[in-house]
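Q: Hi! First time doing this. I have a protein sequence and I read that you can turn it into a structure. Is that right? Here it is:
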Amino acid sequence: MLTGSMASNAWGIPRTTHDLDFVLQLPPSQVDRFCALFESEDYHVDAEAVRQAFHPPHQFNALHLPSGLKIDFWLPRPVPFERAMFERRVHDHWLDTPVALATAEDVLLHKLFWNRITPSDRQTGDVAGIVESSGAYETPERRSDLSGVPRVVFARRRGTGGGA
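A: Yes, that's right. Below is the predicted 3D structure, encoded as structure tokens:
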């Protein structure tokens, strides 16, 4: 499932990014098969790093060597939000290619979560972009409902008040 900045680009206001983020359900028995998908001179994936991703921080990456693109893969942590986020994913097509995408609500909440850990104007900008564009890119398969997300977050970001 696509998440991170590319998912916020899909739901919000596009910006440049230096990587791709995917949440991946990968049984330990499939690690070697997964790594084999990247066996070429164009990619690097460390099979041991993939095996370590079953423990915190539940992340590993692949590198596309010709372009320098980093692809971050996250295994869902055993917490209800991340399991539900994966279950709520939506399916879309980009350039005739099927894409599983985190919902706008889940991208927004995940960006807010990461912003508490490592504060960043990019995270809050992505959140504001999702709210400003809410509904702009919807299709019958891709709908967002931000009604449950407090507007105070965005008012505070813009300096327009919003209380504590």
